[in-house]
Amino acid sequence: MKKSRQIFLSLMLAAATVMPMAAMTQASAATSEDLNVDARAALDKLYRINPTAAVIGHKAKAILVFPNIVKAGLIFGGAYGEGELLKGPEIAGYYNSVTASWGFQAGVQSYGYVVFLMSNKAASYLNRSDGWEIGVGPTVVVVDEGVARNLSSSTLKDDAYAFIFSQEGLMAGISIEGTKITHIHPNN
After folding, report:
1. pLDDT tens, per residue, the chain with 188 residues
2. Contact 67, 83 (CB under 8 A)
3. What gap in Å lies between CA 128 and CA 118, rounded to an integer?
4. CA distances, 114 to each of 16, 65, 97 (Å)
């Protein structure tokens, strides 16, 4: 009985290690052209499904768009995706989003998220820091349906607003708390 438990735990640990690495490898193959197309499509989709996001987007100083984050885990997990920073219609840089997690989790999922940076201070934080860990630095409000009902252009007071969308897969719940966003140079 003890030996079978050890084998089971070893298999779980191996699966937890391999699944996030496979997901991250698949997600990291984007070129700058792919990111440009995917980010614009994701932002347009978010604006169509959430009018509040469109209002906030027009007031934002910069917008971080991560069109496809892949998350996988079995006890230990990870999430990875690549996106871009927009300042008006211009692309101001490319970034990755990396999250590590542990706890009760099993499965694979994908989602996208957009962070609207509302002040010049929040937008410049990306350039001044060696990566931005959500939860440290500018204040980020994750906007769900309840928060969205109470937001308008006159109530925007926080540094950044994040919208999570297009969730698909077998895992429940998404959090971007603890996610690290770092500048990258995508494949050309």
Report:
1. 554 444 334 434 444 444 444 444 444 447 899 999 999 999 999 999 988 899 899 999 999 999 999 988 777 788 899 999 999 999 999 999 998 877 766 788 888 999 999 998 888 888 787 777 776 666 677 776 545 444 555 556 678 888 888 878 765 556 666 788 899 987 76
2. yes
3. 17
4. 27, 5, 11
**Secondary structure class of 69 (helix, strand, coil):** strand
> What is 119-165 written as a DSSP string?
SHHHHHHHHHSSSEETTSSS-EEE--HHHHHT--TTT--SSEEEEEE
Q: How far apart are CA 4 and CA 9, in angstroms?
A: 9
CB 71 within 8 A of CB 79: yes
Q: What is the pTM of this model?
A: 0.75
